[in-house]
Amino acid sequence: MTQTQHADIVTFLTQTCQLVETAFIEEMTDHFVVSVEARLADSLSFEQALALTIDDFGGRKNIQKMEWTYRKVFLKSLVRDWWALVESQFAKAKRLRTMMVVGLVTFVSLYFGLMTDFTGVIERNVLWISVQWGGVIWVTMLTLFFLQRIAPRFKKVGVVRFPTLLRRLLSYLLWVGALLLYLGISTLEMPLLLKGFCYSGLWSAFAVLYLALLDYSMKTDPDSWYQTR
Amino acid sequence: MDTSPQLLKGSLSAIILKLLSDSQWMYGYEICQKVKELTSGQLKITEGALYPALYKLEAEGILITKTQVVEGRARKYYSIAQDQQGNAQDKLAQIGHFLYQLQRILTPDDFIKLPAT
């Protein structure tokens, strides 16, 4: 197969089908190349071989549908892998790190939660603004994610892939969830000891879940926050 | 005679598990070709049905994957997860049992004579 023919296959997948998920495109490209090469060996022209391979997949629409199946599976795998990493935070190799991070987070939360009027400050300061800006970033990414297939012109701004989108959403939801629960607990009338216990539980859980998410991001995609191609 | 896509769809996971239990690691195109080869072209798995089935088994944790670079391209291989070998065998046994029961219901007269291969 010539480089031009290989490029034609990639163009079909990325431009005609508007696929964006890297791992899925790589798998499809490999399948297309092997299938077309086998048909070229049977004396078919490249155009005929490509058309027959597209038919095997049920056409362009079906390939796009398969990308959504890939995403659904990715979501399930992410939840499963993330939970496995949450459990691994208590394994011997990571126990010291987990204890240090959880200890520090718990100490800070108890200090600010019980010793200062942190609730009064929290609504005005940078933490609350971070929730709003995090929301803006997340909504923008989600909009671009859905628009990139309908209006490919948006790809010039940047391509939003599902794995990246999910990691951002999980980071954001964890942060917002922890912050809202923190505010909720702080408004409850309860003994100081019980309140301290709730704060510790909340921020310890947050720290462990976040550590697992960081591990997941480092394991799966260490240097992609934003990709333009 | 063409096999009904519905019949094939229902048996797809069994076919995948059987092939993978025999061959360890396989990639999508290889699975399609193997089915064609084993059935002398009588059964043809379409790629549009195969990949969703592979992804579903992967999501259930039954299959694991690895990617290898072959001729400069990333190729994704599938295999049955080590801790799921028993589960896969159970699934195959279930399907075997179902086929046995089906054969008990259908008499030889019910079968349409298949063309000689």
TrEMBL record, chain B:
Q: Which Pfam families match?
A: PadR
Q: Where is the Transcription regulator PadR N-terminal domain?
A: 16-82
Protein's name in the database:
Transcription regulator PadR N-terminal domain-containing protein
